[in-house]
Amino acid sequence: MGAVMALPRTTRTARPSNPNNLTRPKLTRTAGWIAVAFGAIHIVVAPLDKRDVWSDIFEQGPWQTISLDVTPENLAYSEAFWVGPASCGVPVLLFGAFVLWTAKQGARVPAAFGWTMTAWGAVLAALLPTSPAWALLAVGVLLVLAARGPGAAEAETAES
Known about the structure:
This protein is mainly α. It is built from eight helices and no strands.
């Protein structure tokens, strides 16, 4: 009979000392995916919703239609511009990608990002309750919970 060899210690997976630490990355990833979805949907849906206006803009030229001096004649063009390419869709998509990247690196997103997103989402949702601003509010709350949730104090001291 041959000798039984034990696996080297380096191949064993270390168990987390605090199982509650597993929630933080999940909350962070969820917040990141909500932000990515919000941004992507905004980027795709907004121009589709105004495709007749965008057709006019491309036909007449953007320098002839889009202006910071909004008049009744160019209101539809300005609205299409500010709801489409000049909207918060791209920055929120990039923010969500950053949050996902941060979570993949095993790092913690600072609570200030969550608090800022929470405040921004709350203001937008209060001004227009039927808007998708509630998604931004959810992203902020999830990031705050992930940064301040169970095990955050240990993570802060370990990161220092």
